[in-house]
Each structure stands twice: as structure tokens, then as C-alpha cells.
Design a protein that fits this description.
The chain is 32% helix and 18% strand. The chain has 11 helices and 8 strands. The protein has an 8-stranded mixed sheet with strand order 1-2-4-3-5-6-7-8, sandwiched between helices. Strand 3, helix 5 and strand 4 form a beta-alpha-beta unit. This is Alpha/beta hydrolase.
């Protein structure tokens, strides 16, 4: 049973503040949660209050400060909660917001407009938030973005910062997809929703001022898994491939005995008990851990578009992310990958406080611009 837990340890390993349902509020005014998670510059040095934890003695100070703030809320551990309860826990985004307030760091103002869209899927519809740069172009490239949260928790607000950064810095429209969550919607619902959203964007790009010939997919953790799976299904169903894939610490394997999993078994915000909890909530059975939609390192990866893999050191998923990059290269895919030391799962999008996060965000933006020919 443990062997397949890692697979769903997806992104957002901390519970989402508020509902994790597929509908999210305030699309016409990007939430404060998101805007605060990243900024162009850090205006004040952020220092942790205590010593580095035993499980990460070389953690960067800004990253440690975020983890300390997250743990200070005293939330009950996610594995002891129901999914509905876990979605009300504090998130890393909350920790970043509060640290910025504590240190009088102003919120960035993104030059991006947002609007909501409903996308039809099998059995109903899902919500998406469309981020459009205010640069005044008549047509933009499009990035279909999938948030993290283990297919169980988190929502568009929790990952609003990433979407804002990608939209503004790449000068591209971002369609952030609120795929349906488990356990209300078990595997493979999230994967099916992700692909349905991609097809919707291809068919409706003009209606949102997007260029249907320049559509990339991107995601963090669970979302990174969904981005790659969407490209695989596009290949297999012979529809237009994404222009590029950006996968940030993606869920890519089902082996809990990798080097990074052993090293980071007690890491925060992602640890082994939480992975087990995600597995229990998302999969219908442990046998599904062998499905190549989960165990991507065993999937047929030939013919995929240029792919960028971002990994981090203090993360059980580091090894499988690196392995996926190697497997993609072996399959003939053009791959670019980078790892950031001293930071944890969920660091991407924390550019307001964590220098390594800002570097990773800039790297992702540069890769997208290159793919779009910008």
C-alpha cells in the first residue's frame, strides 16, 4: 500500500483555506491570497526565528520562515482530517501573506485582468479563471494551468500567485482550471477534466483573445502530473499537441523508496502520512498506482512537446521528477530541467519572499517565451 502513496502526494500539500470545490469566487478581482504570494523584489530580509529543522539542516532562511509560520497556526495534521476539514486548514499561501504583513512588505499589483468561465465536462461543468495581461494585444499565447493539492485539497485562490506571474511575465493568457476533487470525484476524474479543459481552450481560444496555435500546459505537483498527462492524451487522440509543458515538482512515480523519498520522509509541508492520505482519498484501489497516468516514469513519453521540469531538494518527489526528465530525454523529447536546493515542495509562487522561488518563476517564464517564439 505504501508503494503507491507518493503518487498522489501532489502539490499543495497543505490544505486549502476555504472550500476546495471546483467553483471559486471573485474571478473578476484576483484574490488577495494570490497576489501576495509573489513580488518583483523582496523589500526586507526575512529571517527564521529558530534553528533549521533536523529534516532540512540546509534549508534557506526565507523558506524556513515560511515553514515556521505555517506550523505556527497549529492546524491538526491533514491525515487526521476528512477532505472537507483539510480544505479549511491554512496553506503556504497564508503563511506567505502573513509574513509579508508582519514585515510590512507591500502586495504586488499585477497588470492582469481576471474573469470566470464554465467549461463543460462529462457529468457537468468545471470552473476556470482566465488571466489576461493588460498589455493591450489583440491576441495572446495561452497557458492552461493546473493547480496542486493532491487531487484532494486546494483551489484556484491558493495558486493564484503562480497564475498571475505566468500571465504577466510571459504576456500570455492563463486559464487556471478548477478540476473536480477527490474523494467526491475519484481517479481519473481530475485527469479527464484536465484534458476537457485543454480541448475547450483549443476550440474557444479566439473567444478569450487567445492563439489556438500557441497553447502550452503547466502545473504544480498534482497539476504537473495533469499537464503531462494532457499532452500524452492529446498525442494519443491525435489533436493539437501543446506548444510546451511546464511541470513543477510533478507527481511522476509510485515508488516510495526513492533516494529523495527516504531523505525527505519527514519533510514539510509534504510528508509520508500525508501522501498516504492523498492515496486513500484519490485512488479507487491501490492497483491504480500502477496506472501510467500516475506512474508517469513508466508511460510512453515519445512524441511529446518540449518539456521543462522543475524540482526542489527538500521534497519526496524530487527523485521521480528527475527520473521523469531522464525518461523524457530517452524518449527523444526536448527537455530542460533545473533543481533548486534548500527549498521545499510548494516553493514555486513564493517569489515575494523566497529568492529561489523567484528564480524558478523566471526560469519557467523564459522557457514559455522561448516555446512561444517571443
Amino acid at each position: 500500500m505504501l508503494n503507491f502513496a507518493v503518487l498522489v502526494a501532489i502539490a499543495g500539500i497543505v490544505a486549502c483555506k476555504g472550500s476546495g470545490s471546483s467553483s471559486t469566487p471573485a474571478d473578476s478581482a484576483a484574490s488577495d491570497t494570490a497576489a501576495i504570494k509573489t513580488a518583483d523584489t523582496t523589500t526586507k530580509e526575512i529571517k527564521p526565528k529558530g534553528a533549521a529543522p533536523a529534516w532540512a539542516p540546509n534549508m534557506k532562511p526565507e523558506m524556513q520562515a515560511v515553514i515556521e509560520k505555517l506550523e505556527s497556526y497549529g492546524d491538526k495534521p491533514i491525515p487526521k482530517l476528512t477532505a472537507q476539514e483539510a480544505r479549511k486548514n491554512h496553506t503556504p499561501t497564508d503563511a506567505v501573506m502573513d509574513l509579508m504583513k508582519d514585515n510590512n512588505i507591500p502586495k504586488p499589483v499585477f497588470k492582469v485582468d481576471t474573469a470566470g468561465k464554465e467549461i463543460p465536462v462529462a457529468g457537468g461543468s468545471i470552473h476556470a479563471r482566465v488571466y489576461t495581461p493588460k498589455s493591450g494585444k489583440s491576441v495572446y499565447p495561452v497557458i492552461v494551468y493546473y493547480h496542486g493539492g493532491g487531487f484532494v485539497i486546494a483551489n484556484l485562490d491558493v495558486y493564484d500567485a503562480s497564475a498571475n506571474v505566468l500571465a504577466e511575465k510571459t504576456d500570455a493568457i492563463v486559464v487556471s482550471v478548477a478540476y473536480r476533487l477527490a474523494p467526491e470525484h475519484k481517479f481519473p476524474t481530475a485527469h479527464d477534466d484536465a484534458f476537457a479543459a485543454y480541448k475547450w481552450v483549443l476550440a474557444n481560444a479566439a473567444s478569450i483573445h487567445g492563439d489556438a496555435k500557441k497553447v502550452a500546459v503547466a502545473g504544480e505537483s498534482a497539476g504537473g502530473n495533469l499537464a503531462i498527462n494532457t499532452a500524452i492524451k492529446a498525442r494519443d487522440t491525435k489533436i493539437a499537441l501543446p506548444t510546451a509543458i511546464i511541470a513543477v515538482y510533478p507527481v511522476a512515480g509510485s515508488d516510495m523508496n526513492t533516494k529523495s523519498y527516504t531523505k525527505n520522509a519527514a519533510a514539510k509541508p509534504l510528508d509520508k502520512p500525508m501522501m498516504m492520505w492523498f492515496v486513500k482519498n484519490y485512488l479507487n484501489s491501490m492497483a491504480e498506482g500502477k496506472d501510467t497516468r500516475i506512474n508517469l516514469v513508466a508511460a510512453n513519453l515519445k512524441g511529446l512537446p518540449p518539456t521543462t521540469i522543475i524540482t526542489d531538494e527538500i521534497d519526496p518527489l524530487q527523485s521521480e521528477g528527475m527520473m521523469l526528465a531522464d525518461k523524457l530525454k530517452a524518449a527523444g523529447v526536448k527537455v530542460d530541467s533545473k533543481n533548486w536546493d534548500g527549498v521545499t515542495h510548494e516553493f514555486f509562487g513564493m517569489g515575494a519572499l523566497v529568492p529561489q522561488a523567484k528564480e524558478a518563476e523566471t526560469y519557467a517564464v523564459d522557457q514559455l517565451k522561448k516555446a512561444f517564439g517571443m
